[in-house]
Amino acid sequence: MKKLNNFYHDLKNAFSHIVMFGLAFAIIGYLVPHTYYEFFDRSTYFTLELPIKIAKKVITPCESNTILMTRFASQDISAVISIQMVLEKYEGDEMIKSETYKTPISKGQKTVVISWKMDCDIELGTYYYHGVVSYMPHSQEFFTPFYTEKFEVVASPSGNLNN
Amino acid sequence: MENVTTQIIQAVISYLLGLVTGYVLRDVLFKHYDNVKNKEHIFVLLMVTIVWASSVVADILSAEYDTNPLIHGLMGSIVGFYYYRSKQDEKTK
Fold first, then answer.
1. Is A160 helix (H, G, I), strand (E, B) or coil?
2. Inter-chain touch B81–A14, beta carbons under 8 Å
3. What interface predicted TM-score (ipTM) does this complex get?
4. Per-residue pLDDT tens over the stretch A125-134
5. Which of A107, B10, B32, B85 has the greatest count of CB atoms below 10 A from its CB?
6. Does residue B63 sit at the A interface (CB-CB below 8 Å)?
């Protein structure tokens, strides 16, 4: 009976050590890098060449325009690109359309082409795109805002435009 | 293919470095703790702690490296077990 008691006591102590050390190592191992990345890390994971280039500076309704995004990533990341097309107006810029893409971004420098079709009933005027790339290396969220060159939407020569 | 070759070379170098470090540490430790019973317990305890500390440092230094908290916990459990065993060894000495 005493042997069994000792065995039980030994097992209980061993188990409590295993659990305590396991928890302590897991918590410290998780918290130390996360604290570092949250408060001390100043690395640049993702940069964009600004302003982002637009293929056609003058475009007609129904045509497609191309955004040429030159970016540099220091590591492979998964990102969400939110992009808005904005019409410049005297009384204040108006957001016309917005799109969100979820995309993996590979390490290195690359020019990404985003094609954007203009609506056929789009208002004439000066437009630009702006948006933000959000990504989460090490579970910390980072944002890289961007804007593009401006471009003009003009009436098509065939005159198939309402406004 | 070039990438695979680099990875194999890195793995072999890491293995050899680990082997040499293990032998050196064991020698130093066994000489230092000559009167300690079951030195293997302290050896395993120290080695796992060093590996764990290295993985935490690697988590900070390499942006691409991320250790699962469960692996940290597993290493902690091993250290906890051997810490308890070495404490028991001290008592029964």
1. coil
2. yes
3. 0.72
4. 999 999 999 9
5. B85
6. yes
